[in-house]
Structure formats: C-alpha cells, structure tokens
Amino acid sequence: MANKPIMRGIRLDEHYDSVLGDISSVIDMAKRSAARSVNFMMTAAYWLIGRRIIEFEQTPVLWERQCIMQWMCWRMLPSKLRPTKKRAHALR
Q1: DSSP conformation class of 82
Q2: How many domains does the chain have?
Q3: Residues 14 and 51 in one domain
Q4: Would you say residue 81 has pLDDT above 50?
Q5: What's the predicted TM-score (pTM) here?
Q6: In this structure, are residues 5 and 11 in contact, taking their beta carbons and an 8 Å threshold?
Q7: DSSP β-bridge partners for residue 45
Q8: Helix (H, G, I), strand (E, B) or coil at 26
Q9: Using an 8 Å Cβ cutoff, are 15 and 7 in contact?
Q10: Cα separation of 68 and 36, whole Å?
C-alpha cells in the first residue's frame, strides 16, 4: 500500500474523517433544532386553534348561527383545509 500524503503530521485521510465528522455533527444539530422549532410551532398553532374553538363555543349565539356553523364544519371545512398550491409547494 502506498504512503498517503501527510499534512502537518496528520494523514489526509484522518484529517478528512475529522472534517467529515464535524460537518455531520453540525447537520445533525441543525436537524434536531429544526425539529424542536417545528414541534413548538405546531403545538402553539394547535393550542390557538383549540382556544379559538372554545371561545366560539362559549359565546352566546343564536340557534341559527349554531346550525350554520355545524353545517360549515361538516361540509365546507375539510375542503378549506386541503393543501393549496402554496402550502403543497412548501411541504416539498
């Protein structure tokens, strides 16, 4: 086996492995940080959605408004929550 080039007393393959390990660590830390941020934001979003629903349910409303809201929830809301082109593109 041929001798590998040496850079300041360290073989290049050892130096390469060290740099590769450092880069890999940075990427792993960034992924974990991004996951924590997304989890935090999704939790906050769901909490706000729940709060808004509770506020709506606890306000005195007319019977007609309740019927309209129930109809909207069962008929219209699922179609409104389908991914739009903008949201679908962001998921890619």
Answers
A1: S
A2: 2
A3: yes
A4: yes
A5: 0.46
A6: yes
A7: none
A8: helix
A9: yes
A10: 38
